[in-house]
Write a structure and sequence with these properties.
By secondary structure, the chain is mainly α. The chain has one domain. The longest helix has 27 residues. It starts with 7 loop residues before the first helix and ends in a 10-residue tail after the last helix.
Length: 302
């Protein structure tokens, strides 16, 4: 594949859309588990429905060749990390309220900045560092360390999910140098669904029509979220686009109120503007950098 042109503004828009879809997906996973569907089965349907959706769509377009890859071992490594991350990402909201689990996920940019600098050798300038620090301060205001009780297991799972998201983002950006986003998503889903299938007989039970609707919605939204996440990392740097995940706090708070009648404490209303402001700052900075860069100077710019 030819080198991918960096499009920071598009990457940020894609990541914002991904944050909304992913927040909706997580809400549905928590709600579906509450109806009695086993967590293991939810994971299977989340991964497996993506395979026929993408496969049939590409076949109808005569474009199955887009799934070709010369890097299958890298896809297997990405799938292994992705399965661990999926268990933690969907497990944290089952152990914690949505607002708390979302708050823990906001440590991802901290991990991402470190990993992108160490593994991708990306230069992270003061504007992105400032945005990450501002977002972290907002998280501290919301979490109020020492004043709220969060189950240790839920906290550990939430922080583990944040680290895995950062690590997987590095893997996806590396794969995006050679493979299309649709191929990355397809092979992750195919490999992970095959693994989850092995455990399905231990979880599979009869479901009501509404539960089947929820499971199908989880599968479809999971496919859309993965495409958006992967595409955002194709057009933008990890340490930049991942800051847009802060916006998911808005959706988590809204869903927590509408579905479970849970509202976060007053500290959330103080910390949220700081977090959202951090995302706005990074979006503005990336837009300015994109306009200022030229093909000759881009390599020397933040």
């Amino acid at each position: 594949m030819p080198p991918v042109q960096q499009r920071p503004a598009l990457a940020l828009i894609l990541r914002l859309a991904a944050a909304f879809v992913l927040a909706t997906l997580i809400m549905l996973v928590k709600y579906t588990a509450g109806t009695g569907v086993a967590f293991g089965e939810i994971l299977f349907w989340r991964a497996s429905l993506t395979v026929p959706i993408l496969g049939l769509w590409l076949a109808a377009q005569g474009q199955l060749g887009r799934l070709r890859t010369q890097r299958m071992p890298a896809h297997v490594r990405r799938a292994v990390m992705g399965m661990i991350g999926m268990v933690m990402t969907f497990g944290a909201p089952l152990l914690l309220p949505l607002a708390e689990s979302t708050t823990l996920s906001f440590t991802t940019p901290i991990f991402a900045v470190i990993l992108s600098a160490l593994l991708l050798h990306e230069r992270v300038g003061p504007w992105r560092w400032a945005a990450v620090v501002a977002g972290f301060l907002g998280i501290l205001i919301i979490a109020r360390p020492g004043q709220t009780h969060m189950p240790p297991l839920g906290t550990a799972v939430g922080l583990g999910a944040a680290f895995m998201v950062a690590l997987i983002s590095i893997q996806i950006r590396d794969l995006s140098r050679t493979d299309e986003p649709i191929a990355i998503v397809f092979w992750f889903s195919a490999i992970s669904s095959a693994v989850y299938l092995l455990g399905l007989p231990f979880f599979l039970t009869a479901h009501s029509p509404f539960q089947w609707f929820l499971l199908i919605a989880i599968g479809v939204l999971g496919c859309v979220a993965q495409l958006l996440l992967t595409a955002s990392l194709r057009f933008g740097q990890v340490a930049s686009v991942i800051v847009m995940d802060y916006s998911s706090l808005v959706w988590a708070t809204l869903y927590g109120w509408l579905v479970w009648n849970q509202l976060p404490p007053a500290a959330t209303w103080l910390g949220a503007p700081l977090i959202i402001g951090a995302g706005a700052l990074i979006a503005w900075r990336e837009h300015r950098l994109a306009r200022a860069q030229s093909p000759l100077s881009a390599a020397n710019t933040e």
